[in-house]
Design brief:
- By secondary structure, this protein is α/β, with parallel strands linked by helices.
- The chain has 2 domains: about 200 residues, 5'-nuclease (Rossmann fold, 3-Layer(aba) Sandwich), CATH 3.40.50; about 100 residues, no CATH class.
- A 7-stranded mixed β-sheet has the order 5-6-4-1-2-3-7, with helices on both faces.
- A hairpin with a 3-residue loop joins strand 5 and strand 6.
- Helix 1 crosses helix 2 and helix 2 crosses helix 4.
- The longest helix is centred in the first third of the chain and has 18 residues.
- The radius of gyration is 22 Å and the shape is elongated.
- It starts with a strand and ends with a helix.
- About 35% of the residues are buried.
């Protein structure tokens, strides 16, 4: 399949291709070869490639160093966000070279980065922008998300106007809705994905889930209720704001009086009892704020970098990586 838009997670690609590489030049060559070969061969002639970047860390990214963002939006909410994560010492140099390599490449390659937002923050508004541009068109547009990060999986779908695939391996075998359902027991939606992570946590981001708070001592029955509610959220295709409002509007006495209780009612009653001792609802709402896209509904223009091709700058970057001009390497400018 050819795609009209390809959205590439640069950090995910780095770790996917790093493997046994010892130097940044080894990895950057693999990353560029992958984009120039595999990715561009799957892009329509008039298609657009979006490359997403996380903020640049202020540490030197040594193996024992923690990732530190001074003004990252998520760290403003949760100070321990990603506090335990370590990075390869060649990550920073590789990513900076990769960014510079594609910075002056024309209108068909757009880079999204800032000091405040992470790669997954850009995905929701970017797909919304694509869908909005084609909602009145009869033709369908295909979008590929290249990442191994399951945070992106909530965006995959086969719907009118825009089809979104997640490529976490081979282009010919995209990660499917059915595979997601097998793995998580609910179908992928943005709200369900956010809620799942808020409830069960994410060690890689140092997010303690609502159900993993040590003092809460949740039983398996509450976990089953969470699974039921996640399926309800996914099936009804509600937004995460509607989920939050549902929790805030609920009242223990009125829900407890109901004769016919749905998945939400049963979960809310159970969490309310635990909330008497441990602030589970506060944790849930905080987690949702950390996990969801901070750029939802906002313009991406301030964070999108797209420059006309500049052969002088390109040549400098090409030579710093390959030691030879780009056109000698790929046979074009």
């Amino acid at each position: 399949m050819l795609y009209d838009y390809i959205i590439l997670d640069s950090a995910s690609l780095f770790y996917r291709l790093k493997k046994t590489a010892k130097t940044s030049l080894d990895v950057i060559k693999r990353m560029i070869n992958y984009v120039e070969g595999e990715v561009k061969s799957r892009l329509n002639k008039d298609g657009i490639l979006y490359i997403l970047f996380d903020p640049v860390s202020y540490s030197d990214l040594g193996e024992s160093k923690n990732f530190y963002y001074s003004i990252n939006e998520r760290k403003k909410i949760l100070s321990d966000y990603k506090a335990n994560r370590t990075y390869s010492p060649i990550y920073l140099e590789t990513i900076e070279l990769f960014r510079k390599y594609y910075l002056y490449r024309g209108d068909s390659i757009k880079l999204l980065y800032s000091d405040e937002y992470e790669a997954d923050d850009y995905v929701e508004p970017l797909i919304a922008q694509i869908k909005d541009g084609w909602k009145f068109m009869s033709t369908c547009k295909n979008v590929a998300l290249i990442t191994t990060d399951y945070d992106f999986a909530g965006y995959i779908h086969d719907k009118p106007n825009v089809i979104v695939h997640m490529i976490n391996g081979d282009f010919d075998k995209p990660f499917t809705v059915s595979q997601f359902e097998q793995l998580f027991q609910f179908k992928p939606t943005i709200a369900a994905n956010i809620l799942y992570k808020a409830l069960f946590g994410d060690k890689s981001d140092n997010i303690v889930g609502t159900l993993l708070m040590k003092k809460a001592k949740f039983g398996n029955n509450i976990k089953v209720l969470c699974r039921d509610y996640l399926q309800q959220v996914a099936d009804s295709n509600v937004t995460i704001d509607e989920v939050i409002q549902q929790f805030k509007d609920a009242n223990f006495q009125s829900v407890n009086k109901k004769e016919d209780r749905d998945a939400f009612d049963l979960l809310y009653l159970s969490l309310s009892l635990v909330d008497l001792k441990v602030p589970v609802f506060q944790t849930l709402f905080t987690n949702i704020r950390v996990i969801r896209s901070a750029l939802s509904g906002k313009s991406l223009e301030p964070y999108m970098h797209c420059n006309a091709e500049n052969n002088v700058i390109n040549d400098v970057v090409y030579k710093s990586i390959y030691g030879i001009p780009y056109k000698q390497l790929f046979g074009r400018t």
